């Protein structure tokens, strides 16, 4: 039985989102008494978010499901500086145009997962550049600077780790925590925001904002973090051997997105169903108890539910059908990546590299030597093999058991 009384904290705890809370009792009482406005910040450093960010989006979704109001902060201002948290080197500076383009690309993910309307708990999307870029440097030093000590800032993991490794930490990055704290002050003043949420690596930044609100305005606000999600094999969530698992279709096809979840480690299925889907807990308990090959049924549910939420119902249905045809029927589904080799054909190494299945022709040769490459389910053993697609007939190219593509004329 949960120790919490509010729907909000009980829901967060039951779904596996809970790590640290600044004052759990007070936040629990507040969430029972009124609609709580809470926010998560996302710096637009790429044209799409990835599934590592999805855990934070789910915090906002749970907030809204429990009847409270989520705010998405697009870090158009903070991204100009760069968050040093968890980074070994200084981030590349992005232009105003690139930041605006990235924000435009990212917006769609939130619109699919959260409800944006004029209701009491309708989500808001706000760019912190609206106030950070208008803030004068001397004004920042005078009004905010006195509330931060260098001694304390040096103790935060984001700073300490970089310095311990004798890696450079620029003055501009050192200011990031001040800017993020200022965000909380503005959001509390303008929107009555009382809660900041994030991953556990954001704890120091969140605490800074809480203290700034208390010191300048005497306001009591709260912080909440979820555990950073790792897979059972110890790898960080959001990455695969082939790179980031992007939320946007133009960065990663729906089939590949679906397949990532379908390939979840047996040990992670229950955890991921709780965190990343709305499947009822009773059903999750049944699914994660499945054994042997039956656990694959739970993985299909996971892949379908997450893909439906992030990419839409049609994408989930199409990806699942492609997987069924590819793996069960021996065919080549419509969602697989496609490459045209033309009338002259293309060498197998070039085909694999062009599709992104291998990083180079050298890697392609190694995979061929390992017997991992098949064309229409027939092994390819010659590194110089010429792939020719007959007129009007598609070929299925496979690398191992998980990578498949369609080769056309």
Automatic annotation (TrEMBL):
The domain of life is: Bacteria
Q: Single Gene Ontology BP term? A: tyrosyl-tRNA aminoacylation
Compartments where located: Cytoplasm
Q: Which Gene3D superfamilies match?
A: HUPs (3.40.50.620), RNA-binding S4 domain (3.10.290.10), Tyrosyl-Transfer RNA Synthetase (1.10.240.10)
- Pinpoint motif 'KMSKS' region by residue range: 236-240
Question: Where is L-tyrosine annotated to bind?
Answer: 39, 176, 180
Enzyme Commission number(s) of this protein = 6.1.1.1
Going by the UniProt record, its keywords in alphabetical order are: Aminoacyl-tRNA synthetase, ATP-binding, Cytoplasm, Ligase, Nucleotide-binding, Protein biosynthesis, RNA-binding
**Pfam families named in the record:** tRNA-synt_1b (PF00579)
Q: Where does ATP bind?
A: 239
Provide the catalytic activity annotation.
Answer: tRNA(Tyr) + L-tyrosine + ATP = L-tyrosyl-tRNA(Tyr) + AMP + diphosphate + H(+)
Which InterPro entries did the record assign? aa-tRNA-synth_I_CS, aa-tRNA-synth_Ic, Rossmann-like_a/b/a_fold, S4_RNA-bd, S4_RNA-bd_sf, Tyr-tRNA-ligase, Tyr-tRNA-ligase_bac-type, Tyr-tRNA-ligase_bac_1
State any single GO MF term.
tyrosine-tRNA ligase activity
Please report, in chain numbering, the residue ranges of the motif 'HIGH' region: 44-53
Q: What class of enzyme is it?
A: ligase
Where does the signal sequence lie? none
Instruction: Kindly list the GO CC terms recorded for this protein.
Output: cytosol
Which CDD domains does the record cross-reference, listed alphabetically?
S4, TyrRS_core
Q: Where are the transmembrane segments?
A: none
Subunit organization: Homodimer.
Q: Which NCBIfam families match?
A: tyrS
Function as written in the Swiss-Prot or TrEMBL entry: Catalyzes the attachment of tyrosine to tRNA(Tyr) in a two-step reaction: tyrosine is first activated by ATP to form Tyr-AMP and then transferred to the acceptor end of tRNA(Tyr).
In the record, the note on similarity to other proteins reads:
Belongs to the class-I aminoacyl-tRNA synthetase family. TyrS type 1 subfamily.
Which HAMAP family does the UniProt record give?
Answer: Tyr_tRNA_synth_type1 (MF_02006)
Q: What is this protein called?
A: Tyrosine--tRNA ligase
Gene that this polypeptide is encoded by: tyrS
């Amino acid at each position: 039985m949960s120790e919490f009384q509010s729907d909000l904290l009980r829901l967060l705890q039951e779904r596996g989102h809970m790590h640290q809370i600044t004052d759990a009792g007070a936040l629990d009482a507040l969430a029972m008494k009124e609609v709580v406005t809470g926010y998560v910040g996302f710096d637009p450093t790429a044209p799409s978010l990835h599934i590592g960010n999805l855990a934070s989006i789910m915090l906002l979704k749970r907030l809204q499901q429990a009847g409270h109001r989520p705010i998405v902060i697009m870090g158009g201002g903070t991204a100009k500086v760069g968050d040093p948290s968890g980074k070994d080197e200084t981030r590349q500076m992005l232009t105003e145009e690139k930041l605006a383009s990235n924000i435009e690309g990212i917006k769609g993910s939130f619109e699919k997962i959260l409800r944006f309307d004029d209701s009491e708990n309708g989500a808001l999307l706000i760019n912190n550049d609206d106030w950070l870029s208008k803030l004068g440097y001397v004004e920042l030093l005078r009004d905010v600077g006195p509330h931060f000590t260098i001694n304390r800032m040096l103790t935060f993991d984001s700073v300490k780790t970089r310095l311990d490794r004798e890696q450079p930490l620029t003055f501009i990055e050192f200011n990031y925590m001040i800017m993020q704290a200022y965000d909380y002050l503005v959001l509390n003043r303008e929107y009555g925001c009382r809660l900041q949420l994030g991953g556990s690596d954001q704890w120091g930044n969140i605490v800074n904002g809480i203290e700034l609100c208390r010191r300048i305005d005497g306001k009591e606000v709260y912080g909440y973090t979820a555990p950073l999600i790792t897979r059972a094999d110890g790898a960080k969530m959001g990455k695969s051997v082939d790179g980031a698992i992007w939320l946007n279709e133009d960065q990663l096809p729906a089939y590949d997105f679906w397949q990532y979840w379908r390939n979840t480690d047996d040990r992670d299925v229950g955890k991921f169903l709780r965190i990343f889907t709305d499947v009822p807990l009773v059903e999750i308990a049944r699914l994660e108890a499945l054994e042997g090959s039956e656990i694959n049924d739970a993985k299909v549910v996971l892949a379908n539910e997450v893909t439906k939420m992030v990419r839409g119902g049609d994408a989930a249905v199409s990806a699942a059908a492609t997987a069924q045809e590819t793996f069960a029927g021996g065919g080549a589904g419509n969602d697989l990546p496609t490459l045209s080799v033309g009338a002259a054909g293309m060498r197998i190494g070039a085909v694999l590299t062009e599709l992104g299945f291998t990083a180079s022709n050298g890697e392609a040769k190694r995979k061929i030597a390992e017997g991992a490459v098949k064309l229409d389910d027939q092994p390819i053993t010659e590194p110089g093999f010429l792939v020719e697609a007959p007129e009007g007939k598609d070929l299925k190219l496979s690398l191992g058991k998980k990578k498949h593509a369609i080769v056309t004329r």
